[in-house]
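User: Putative permease, Gemmatirosa kalamazoonensis:
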Amino acid sequence: MAAPTLPRDPASRPSAAPTPETIRGLPRRLGLWSAVAVLIGSTIGSGIFRSPAGIADKLPGPLPMLAVWVTGGLFALCGALTLAEVAGARPETGGLYVFIRDGWGRLPAFLFGWSELVVIRAASLGAISTTFAEYLLRVTGHDPAQAPYSDWVHYIAAVAIVLTSVFNYRGARSGAVVQNVTTLAKYGGLLFIVLLALAMGLPRTGGSHFTPATPPGSFAVGAFGLALVSALWAFDGWADLSFVAGEVKEPRRNVPRALIIGTVAVIAIYLLANVAYLSVMSVEEIRHSRLVAADVAQRLIGPAGVAFVAVTVMLSTFGTLNGTLLTAPRIFFALAEDGLFFKPVARVHHRYESPYVAIMLTAALGVAFVMLRTFEQLADQFVTAIVPFYALAVASVFTLRKRADWSPPFRTPGYPVVPALFVLATLYLLGNAILDPSSRWATLATLGIVAAGIPVYYLTVGRPARRG
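Assistant: Predicted structure for Putative permease:
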């Protein structure tokens, strides 16, 4: 971490013109529907294809299984409705980092950046790119679980990270084009599976897989909490749009609208997908299906269905990977602008007007993690680390509303209940993960890594003697 700079004051800057690579600020080039595509594309990845089996294993009943998806959707919606207010008033590059900084101060904001650097973003990129690589191998007729292809997964995932970083290195517009195309493809692919299952599968089963709704032993509070973590992995991404809020056109109007439209669209397709799965397969069958969408499609239209789903998952995860490389580097960019990270990370490319150093840093971290960790290790670590900061970002609305200059274009409906529900749900998730023996030590270890950022802060950018 670099020593902090003095607060940015236009009057105190050198009179000489800055070099092209150090110009601060990123151009606003993303319209409303590109912003919606960023949110949807960053959210719909591998979760909706991989999580149902784990959820059905913990909650082996149709109603509990669907209830956890509804709960996860409401959780995300409460967060999105709150961030629509905060992001509309603070449409700046960095998103959650900016909200936490303005609401709670420099130390919590630094800890968010620290966690993104050492755990969150690299783990996310690794998990997404690993799924992409596995499906690419399946499409080409190879088993990613067998040698030598099990080793190839890591290399293919690393190449995918590098490729999407190149798209975004060339600017937000280039990244947005890839995002728009892959978002349409993945959403359309999921919708096709839903329509196919309802039109062909439901008449065959007669809805028998929905009864009994709650079989004995299909619900427990602790199991529900653990299953909710899996659902939240699938929903994660609803806040990523805020990271590029500084590049959205008419941000006070478009950022809140995109947050709400995109989140509602994701909730709708996720619920429909799970209804579609149950229309074709029983909960017990879903429990043992790691690739539930592919199994559903195979039952309906044979091998062609499996190929279609595999390609859909590939496009889905590739789009999410691209969205992550579009949004996440803006966190490190904002940190560097504020003097909480190395100053060169805030450089803007003279031609492409992209935060190219931050993009290269993010890609390098993702490649390093994907070469060393498995999907399960990456996904679990990511969820545990990000949840506390979602809570802090959403809770910032309580402190920001007390300011005399607070004039958001959109106000959270149901305030203060809606943000409070989100924060309480977050505390429940963390508490449940700590109390459960199967996840306790992994959760505490991840939280320990986050807490390790406190001494780092005071030894570097937080030293009182250097603050001016």
